[in-house]
């Protein structure tokens, strides 16, 4: 699809693409040149204080927990008494 490069270096993204990518006013777009092509990628900015969650190490642990949940290896309890009972411990 052809679009026109306008004054002030502006380009209008066709509405079909906007809908397909669910873009909204104010969304951030990463713009880069790859192999002579302009590539525009929608991005979400993560606050630096939350970046640890997206580290490869943390994501590996998250995937492991998801696997354990799927295999029903993780259980929940409603009380500490139930927890102690499930662990084979007697509360004193």
Description:
- The protein has 2 domains: 7-43, Ribbon (Pemi-like Protein 1, Chain: D); 48-86.
- Helix content is 30%, strand content 15%.
- It has helices at residues 15-20, 56-70, 80-86; strands spanning 28-34, 37-43.
- The chain has a two-stranded antiparallel ribbon.
- Strand 1 and strand 2 form a beta hairpin.
- The chain is elongated.
- It starts with 14 loop residues before the first helix and ends in a 6-residue tail after the last helix.
- The model has no long low-confidence stretch (mean pLDDT 93).
Helices and strands, with pairings:
Blueprint: H1 15-20, E1 28-34, E2 37-43, H2 56-70, H3 80-86
Antiparallel strand pairs: 1-2
Short description:
Helix content is 30%, strand content 15%. It contains three helices and two strands, in the order H-E-E-H-H. The chain has helices at residues 15-20, 56-70, 80-86, and strands at 28-34, 37-43.
Return residue spans where pLDDT drops below 50 for at least 5 consecutive residues: none
Q: Would you list the SSEs in sequence order as H and E?
A: HEEHH
What's the main sheet like? 2 strands, antiparallel
Coarse morphology: elongated
Beta-strand residue fraction: 15-25%
- The secondary-structure class comes to alpha+beta
- What is the mean pLDDT? 93
- Any idea what the radius of gyration is? 24 Å
Strand order of the largest sheet: 1-2
Q: Terminal Cα separation, in Å?
A: 73 Å
Number of structurally distinct domains? 2
Count the DSSP helices. 3
Helix content: 25-40%
Q: What's the β-strand tally?
A: 2
């Amino acid at each position: 699809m052809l679009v026109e490069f306008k004054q002030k270096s502006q380009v209008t993204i066709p509405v079909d693409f906007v809908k397909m990518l669910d873009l909204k006013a104010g969304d951030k777009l990463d713009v880069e040149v790859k192999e002579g092509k302009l590539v525009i990628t929608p991005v979400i900015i993560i606050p630096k204080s939350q970046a640890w969650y997206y580290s490869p190490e943390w994501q590996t642990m998250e995937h492991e927990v998801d696997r354990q949940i799927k295999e029903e290896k993780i259980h929940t309890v409603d009380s500490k008494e139930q927890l102690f009972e499930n662990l084979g411990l007697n509360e004193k």
